[in-house]
Amino acid sequence: MRTVSPAARQLAVLLWLLTSTLVAYAWHAGTPMPADALAPRLQQAHAFAAETARLARQSAEGSLPAPVSRRHAALLLDHVRRATRALADARVENTLVAHREAARPPLLAVERELEQLAAGRRADRGAVERASDALQAQARAVAAAAQ
Amino acid sequence: MNKLLELFLGVLTAMGGFVEVGELTFALNAGSRFGYQLLWVSLLGTVGIMVFGEMSGRVAAVKHQAVFGLVRERVGMRLGLLTLLAATAVCVLTCAAEIGAIALVWNLLSGWPYRGLLLGVLAALLLIAWAVPFKWIERVFGLGGLLMIVFLVLAWRLSPDWGALAAGLVPKPPVLAQPGDGPLFAYMAVALFSSILLPYETYFYASGAVEDRWQPRDVGINRVVVVFGFALGALLSVALVASGHLAFGAQGIEAVTPGTAVLPVGDTLGPAWVWVALLGMLFAFGGAAIETCLSCAYNLAQFFGWPWGKYRAPGSAPRFTLAWALVFVLATAIVMTGVDPVQVVEYSIVFSVVILPLSYFPLLLVASDREVMGAHANGWLSRSLGWTYFGLVTLAALAAIPLLVLTHGGRG
Asked: Chain B: nearest CA to A100, how far in angstroms?
């Protein structure tokens, strides 16, 4: 009787693991994002906006050294830009498209104000706070839809 | 007098080296998301690192062998090799995150471009690891990391509700803002626990004891350094959770870069203290980068039986020297791709907990073995605590990956 060598068995298991992981990934990537996956992204967008509002206040009050404030704003801007791009590229379920679209203008507003802070200029604190509230509302609505 | 000074410096060094970028972000975010409700995890993790740290130091003092020598000896080649590969992967990822975090802090201090700074950090770390003796690396980074005490002062000045804070140290079912937050709470608990019990700390501590040529008579010093040093370090961890709650909780801010951590420092203590906090981070992350990198090289050398040790000239331990140099280069290459260091450390911390049981099992066996350890073998307290924590880390290891998937990488 022919037997399978241990090396061949191990290779077969490895190939099976690799293939099933790739299939699972492809299936996951092709599925529109449900509410429970979109909610954390919106929550994080809100967290960025809240931090920007705080940075704008601290920058205006001088409770952060000006260079640190500028450089931190630049780093945060990089994160917000990535979040905006990821949200725009996300394929979401039809019922969530409106929420995704509604989050875009406030995120762009946050980007604009962070650009001001990174350049050492004053940010419009009112605009950032409105953006933060709008993102929080979207995050809460989607989280509620996920329940 | 000299002995007392050694002891004092050892305790301070252990405290200063307690916090790294993963613990900083997880502790702040745990506080921001769940208030004081996860404080008991900090306490639980601290007792755990004391138990295994003390055990690894004791075994190193008596048997003159560090963790991966024991892994090879007690669990055999196959499982040992698997543990070694996993530990190396986790240490390289942690080192990458620390290097990225150093560059981010350096960027805040200098304004120089991030990618250029990554190369600067690589050059500085290679130079320090090559030229500076082990004792000085340990002392300079450990004592410099003490500047992180600024977060202890911050928590104090934010006037926490001491009753609520004390209540958070007792485990109880969580009160959640949203009913679906259960898995996230569990994920944060596992991650915070893992960030305190990071395996490289034990690898480095035991290897350091061998480097320092500890003898059985040093077992007492080992116990004092571990208990007091880690207890004081845990105060920092508690302070970070409390600061996260008081400074960020109401607004829902999450720490995504080390810069976020200094916002409340400027607000509460004044702008000058921001520089102190940033310098503290630079030392703390720098120490962690060197420790994770050397841990990789220590593990490889101990497992394969190569000559190792910073006390040897690089030429007389060539494979050990090449190993740590390559780890620095590889870790820097990872963050040069543009991947976010804080995200890297989040993954490395969650995967760390998976290898903890495999690292601690042989340690427990040897430390309990009377034939090897003689009078220094585990007593009933060490044995009970050791096996209890072994059970806990095994549970955490089993839960870590499913929770990571269930919470979309800890985002909710």
From this structure: 17
